[in-house]
Write a structure and sequence with these properties.
The complex is a heterodimer of chains A (328) and B (215). Chain A is mostly helical and 328 residues long. Chain A has 13 helices and no strands. Chain A has helices at 2-11, 13-16, 18-44, 51-72, 75-97, 104-123, 126-148, 154-177, 196-222, 237-253, 262-290, 305-309, 312-327. In chain A, helix 6 (104-123) runs parallel beside helix 8 and helix 8 packs across helix 13. Chain B has one domain: Glycerol-3-phosphate (1)-acyltransferase (3-Layer(aba) Sandwich). Chain B is built from 8 helices and 7 strands; from the N terminus they run H-E-E-H-E-H-H-E-H-E-H-E-H-E-H. The longest helix of chain B has 23 residues, at 192-214. The mean pLDDT of chain B is 85. Classes of the chains: A mainly alpha (328), B alpha/beta (215). The A-B interface holds A 84, 87-88, 91-92, 94-96, 101, 104-105, 107-108, 111, 291-293, 296-298 and B 20, 23, 25, 131, 160, 163, 166, 169, 171, 173-176, 213-215.
């Protein structure tokens, strides 16, 4: 029994990949620093209100552990875990948008598309994975709505449902497809795909989240000129530029996770910085239109699940296709 | 045995199904443990209502709480009656009862259950109405409280339950929904109309508290 457990542990993906382990150490170092800073800050100046920042940091701890358990331990856990993430995000988004009562059955079919999409990623059927939602679900859902028979408001329902599926299921499922990528065929000299899809997955998720945090911090420190006054008044040019630049720099240092050359990694980091911001403001605009501040209250200090992964809905597919174009 | 089944299903199985899959969120309910006996008053939109309330309570008291439900709906056959009594712990009442028999009267049955020490979940609107539209409260709950003025009642407001599983549809489509508990109160008025008006008022306050947190 003991031997079996040891045997299983030694086969676990995380322990086999030294590079990934290094990045996990970095993540924990950042978290510990943040927690310590707020703790000491709170002791030195008890009058400052750190409740929000502390609850955010605590949530980060939970999210990091969940992420490691789901994504880095074993790829067999990753696919259902990411499917669950898509599921919760999709549920949050469609509940928030508000649909007609007659749309319940089309919505049920949209829910069923989630396991299918992730199964396609799991078996690595790229051709169908890449068209299942943009072609098949896109054509099927309107038909199901037409069968339901109510035409008033049908355009809005068709469009909103497809958009919700695309952003929360199709976009995020690219994270899962990283793990189904075959051996890279178009590598530059001296580069290897040793960290595999997990390296790429960790790279894009880490950079996206750190980019969110950095844009927030730069904005707090230097922010003056509003970048999208009518959508998200807290966002500034200083935060955006500072965030993108620092994300790009960080991407250079953790480029060892990817099979890309230095030049390509830096370009990738730059793209993640910019598109992460776009994902963020797109979701902000949706929330503003509906008139809510957060998409939910699942994660203390952050809001709903969708509030946390809004940037990922953009960075995941974009970085995926960037890498796919270069090395496959 | 029944107690273990109830605790397992509402403490774990149904609880996590409702929270993770259906998306039911709930305010803190640990204060219920301090109340010896209570009557929960909730709005009614969905078959999920009773189960969601049961699943939102602390595990240790679930077996002691009985949702009051319609005999003509949940007890159509003996098997159905057994099923809902066993798994939902329902207290079935006759909505159209024989006026001459006291044993059959809903008031008598509910009073009996309270005397036995059970807490009750009552949907004063009677049947499930249109989603999001409040109906008039039936007088029964106020009469029951007048007979048992020492038992506190707790208003509960549920939002969007009817979107996950509306009336006349047996398909559950996951949809975010919220349960919010009010504070336990004992009746301060002594006529049926005043008690009902007071409850409606408290329910309305809960409803508005949900609107505010969302904006």
């Amino acid at each position: 029994m003991k031997e079996q457990i040891l045997n299983y542990l030694s086969r676990m993906d995380l322990l086999q990949k030294i590079d990934i382990l290094h990045v996990v150490e970095i993540i924990f170092a950042i978290l510990i620093t943040a927690s310590l800073t707020f703790f000491i800050w709170g002791k030195l100046k008890p009058e400052t209100n750190l409740k929000e920042l502390k609850s955010r940091t605590n949530s980060w701890w939970v999210m990091v552990f969940l992420f490691i358990a789901a994504v880095l331990l074993d790829r067999m856990i990753t696919f259902p875990a990411l499917a669950l993430l898509s599921f919760v995000a999709f549920r949050e988004l469609y509940s928030m948008i508000g649909f007609r009562d007659v749309d319940r059955r089309p919505i049920f079919w949209a829910f069923l598309a989630i396991p299918v999409q992730y199964y396609l990623a799991y078996i690595g059927w790229y051709e169908l994975f890449i068209i299942f939602i943009p072609v098949w679900m896109f054509l099927f859902i309107p038909v199901r709505m037409v069968i339901a028979g109510e035409t008033t408001g049908i355009i809005k329902s068709m469009a909103s449902l497809q958009w919700s599926l695309m952003i929360t299921v199709y976009g995020l499922s690219h994270l899962a497809y990283f793990l189904a990528l075959p051996e890279a065929t178009n590598l530059s000299e001296g580069k290897s795909f040793i960290n595999g899809g997990q390296g790429l997955l960790l790279f894009v998720v880490f950079l996206t989240e750190i980019n969110d945090v950095l844009q927030f911090m730069w904005g707090k420190m230097l922010g003056k000129h509003k970048i999208t006054p009518s959508v998200s008044p807290n966002k500034t040019w200083e935060g955006f530029i500072g965030g993108v630049l620092s994300t790009t720099v960080i991407s250079y240092f953790i480029g060892f996770l990817t099979p890309l050359t230095d030049m390509q990694v830096v370009l990738g980091g730059f793209i993640i910085g910019c598109t992460g911001f776009f994902g963020d403001i797109v979701m902000s605009a949706i929330k503003r239109d509906i008139g809510v501040k957060d998409t939910g209250s699942t994660i203390p200090g952050h809001g709903g699940v969708l509030d946390r992964i809004d940037s990922l809905t953009y960075t995941a597919p974009i970085f995926f296709h960037f890498v796919y174009y270069i090395v496959f | 045995m029944k107690r273990i089944v109830l605790i397992l299903s509402y403490g774990y199985l149904i609880r996590y199904f409702l929270r993770i899959i259906v998306g039911v969120k709930c305010s803190d309910t640990s204060f219920l443990k301090k109340e010896k006996q209570f009557i929960l008053i909730a709005n009614h939109n969905s078959h999920l209502d009773a189960m969601s309330i049961m699943a939102s309570m602390p595990k240790s008291i679930v077996h002691n709480v009985r949702p009051v439900a319609a005999q003509d709906y949940f007890g159509k056959t003996k098997r159905q009656e057994w099923f809902s009594n066993y798994f939902i712990n329902t207290l079935l009442i006759q909505r159209k009862h024989d006026k001459s028999s006291i044993q059959d009267s809903p008031m008598h049955k509910m009073d009996e259950a309270l005397k036995q020490g059970f807490s009750l979940i009552i949907f004063p609107e009677g049947s499930r109405g249109e989603p999001g539209v409040a109906q008039e409260f039936k007088a029964g709950v106020a009469m029951l409280l007048l007979q048992n003025p020492e038992i506190p009642y707790i208003p509960i407001y549920m939002k969007n339950m009817g979107k996950a599983m509306p009336k006349g549809d047996s398909l559950i489509v996951p949809h975010e929904s919220t349960i919010v508990y009010g504070t336990p109160n004992k009746i301060t008025h002594f006529t049926v109309d005043e008690i009902l008006a007071c409850m409606k008022q408290e329910m309305e306050v809960l409803r508005q508290s949900l609107e505010n947190t969302k904006s």
